[in-house]
Amino acid sequence: MSTTVIAPLLVALCTAILTLLTRPNLRLLQGVSLLGAVAYLGAVAALFDRVVGGETLVYQVGDWAAPFGITLVGDALAAFMLGLAAIVSVGVLAHAVLYVDDFGQRLSFHPLYHFMMVGVSGSFLTGDIFNLFVWFEVMLMSSYVLVLFYGGKQHTRAALNYVVLNLLGSAVMLVAIGGIYATTGTLNMADLARRLADPAAYDVNVLPVLGLAAVLFSVFALKAGLVPFQFWVPAAYRAAPAPVTAMLAGVVKKVGVYAVVRLYFTIFAAASLPRALSLPGLAGDSALDFFGPVLFLMAAASVLFGGVGAVGRDDLDSVLAYSSISQVGFIVLPLAVAATVPSVRILGVTACLVYAFNHGLAKSLLFLVAGTVRESVGSTDFADLGGVAGRSPVLSAAFFVGALSLVGVPPLSGFFGKFLVFDVAARAFATGAAGAAATLAVALLGAVLTIAYYTRAWNAAFWGEPSERVEEFLGDDGSVVPDGGQSTAEAALSLGGMVVVLVAFAVAVVAFGIGFDVLYGAAEAAARAAVDTGGYVDAVAPAEVVE
Amino acid sequence: MSDDAPANEDVAAAESPRPSDVDRSTTVVARTVVRVVVPIILVTAISLLLQGHNLPGGGFIGGVLTATAFVLVYVIFGLDYLQATILDRRDEVDEGMVSVYRRLFALGLALAAGSGLAPLLFDLPFLTQAVLFVEHLPLYGELEVASALAFDLGVYFTVVGALLTIIAEVGAE
Questions:
Q1: Does residue A43 come out as left (phi exceeding 0), alpha (psi in the -120 to 50 range) or beta?
Q2: Which residue in A76, A483, B12, B54 has a CA-CA distance of 20 to 30 Å to B103?
Q3: Which helix (H) or strand (E) holds A475?
Q4: Which pLDDT does position B170 carry in this prediction?
Q5: pLDDT band with cut points at 50, 70 and 90 for residue A277
Q6: CA–CA separation, B26 vs B75, rounded Å?
Q7: Full residue range of the structural domain in which residue B168 is found
């Protein structure tokens, strides 16, 4: 049993506790926090190195054997998602150290941030659906406070919506998990897959499990912000501080996507449907064939709703929030194809993961740019902005790179994400699969909408003549004109630091595009692990329960 | 507590001479009951904590029970009473006990996580527990030393620290 599997979780946990203990000294606190994030990246890299070849590492916490104890499973899929979380987390934290005010950082920002990472890591690593619920809660509890961080009237209302919705979601999730336990007699994912594959031997009724899986699915869709569960997204993203929004959009949303891939492609795929339940036009009888059309409808609606919504917004934050809904649609769209057309299953999951990775990186970058603009100019309304590029070219270039990546321009990593989505849809179309033409049309329309709203945002905020407000707050040489307590030199220094972080993010977006082979290899290994139900069950090897 | 309970004040005034330094809005009955009950609650909480690893109980429930004892003291004797008697200072109402609770919370988490990490030194998985029976002790007989107690103690401090931080902060507002 290798400690490598649990290392990311432990590093995040220890960092969170250390940041609680070092409260009195802010510089030490920030140092510990950043060091912890870098150590987390190191721990994830070590795990990634072990499992990228296709090996599945299993860790039994407390030495209790599989179906009874707490099982952690580190495979290529978990490592891929952890890698995304670790890379985004280091950058966002570096930005947050400069962005969040000293009082907030001293009060609770760092412990909450790292506890959120504990929850994220746990969700990716767990091999047990009840523990998945627990880690979701760990992640959400921290995110509640982080969304509420500013505590103004509007912020509180938005955050309250977010809290109530997610609590409802958690309650539904718990009920569904309880139902699955009652029908199958196990909570361990590998054990669940084994029982669903051979329901007669274990006396399991598959139909209620399918219904409960559908209920669980609605919870994951809520976390991922898919239509029709997208309504919390814009308000919560506007209310939270920029680095928190970057984490919510870049990493926390992906936990919902990961849960869909892991539970439906690895676990519930083992179940087969009675023929009477198959939908007309679809030949298969796997549980995935049931979820494919559902995934497609939600993804298509998200792509279009988010895209049209983003085109009509009048401030940078809202455009990015609606864009986030649309992009999650793009992430799930290839999953829908992968679920219905077995021949492109691995490619579909790969496309989903590559797109998720690119979106995590690029959208975090864009939210951080929006936060930096708010910090220096004091507003993100298009009415107040304009011509930022003339005054602060590096900041604008970072936005430009992020936007181009999401639009899908080569050689940025976003190009390959979009390309793979189209590739999957086209291959499905070639096999004559039902709905493949609709998928292509939705993807095409979504891509056009993406170009439209990013062009509009770029023209309104960054291009053209500087607006009055931009002229007032940004000097000719890009320096910040004092706006209250901070002295010019100090403000300029912290703004300069933020711009350095943003440039690092932009360089990463370009680097993952140029060195795409590495990213593709990792995503493909992850996709292979995701669809390899047998390998997963064999690796965990849950003991047979004698009743 | 002082402004919003005039009815209690009248009762207290009618029944007993009021002690000068204790909050005037509570009755002598309530104060006496709390004096008797709080030690009982604390002993029960500690016994629940100590037996938690193999009988009903544990760090969480022990911590909640301990917090209720503190809440009773807060309700009956007022927010400043604990600070004045335990820390022996009457200033800094907000940061006095609250900073103690916060430290307790952090230390509890560190203890719980540390007890989980300790088995890694012996090449065992995270959170592995061990138990040792010490026998033939004079007077006491057999003593069970369980490593799970360290984890429970961490949970106990975390729960006490977190609940009392919330109560003291919200109570002060």
A1: alpha
A2: B54
A3: none
A4: 85
A5: low
A6: 9
A7: 5-172
Instruction: Write phi, then psi, for A244 (nearest 5 degrees).
Output: -70, -45
CA torsion B55-A177-A133-B150 (nearest 10°) is 10
Q: How many CA atoms lie within 13 A of A420 on its CB side?
A: 31
pLDDT value of residue A319: 94
> What is the total residue count of chain A?
547
Q: Report the residue from A21, A23, A60 with minimal CB separation from B110.
A: A21
Place of tokens 């279009």: A304
User: How does residue A466 score in pLDDT terms, banded at 50, 70 and 90?
Assistant: confident
pLDDT tens for A83-105 read 999 999 999 999 999 998 888 88
Half-sphere exposure of A416 (CA within 13 A, CB side): 24
Suggest the residue from B101, B126, B147 to mutate for an interface test with chain A (most A CBs closer than 10 A): B126
- What is the rounded distance in angstroms from the CA atom of residue A224 to the CA atom of residue A123? 14
ipTM of the complex: 0.85
- A54 dihedral zone (left: phi>0; alpha: psi -120 to 50; beta): left
Q: For the stretch B85-102, what's the b/e string if a residue is b when 16 or more beta carbons lie within 10 angstroms of its beta carbon?
A: eeeeeeeeeeebbbbbbb
In this structure, what are the phi and psi dihedrals at residue A58, rounded to the nearest 5 degrees? -120, 140
Q: What is the 3-state secondary structure (H, E, C) of B84-101?
A: HHHHCCCCCCCCHHHHHH
A141 touches chain B (CB under 8 A): no
Which pair of tokens denotes residue A234? 């814009």
A177 touches chain B (CB under 8 A): no
Interface size A-B, in CB pairs within 8 Å, comes to 39
Q: Are A305 and A227 in contact (CB under 8 A)?
A: yes
Per-chain mean pLDDT for chain A: 89
* Backbone φ, ψ for residue A535 (5° rounding): -60, -40
Interface membership of A17 toward B (CB under 8 Å): yes
Sort out which chain B residues have CB atoms less than 8 A from A61's CB and list them: 125-127
Instruction: Tell whether omega for the bond before A411 is within 30 degrees of 0, i.e. cis.
Output: yes
Which tokens go with B62?
């022990």
Whether residues B126 and A60 touch (CB distance < 8 A) is answered with no
- pLDDT tens track for A195-219: 998 888 888 888 888 889 999 999 9
Tokens representing residue A541 in the block: 């090897």
B71-81 burial by CB neighbour count: b if 16+ within 10 A, else e? Answer: ebbbbbbbbbe
CB atoms within 10 A of CB A456: 17
Q: Do B126 and A10 touch (CB under 8 A)?
A: yes
Model-level pTM? 0.91
Q: Total structural domains in chain B?
A: 1
- d(CA B123, CA A9) in angstroms, rounded, equals 18
**Structural contact between residues A282 and A339, judged by C-beta atoms closer than 8 angstroms:** no
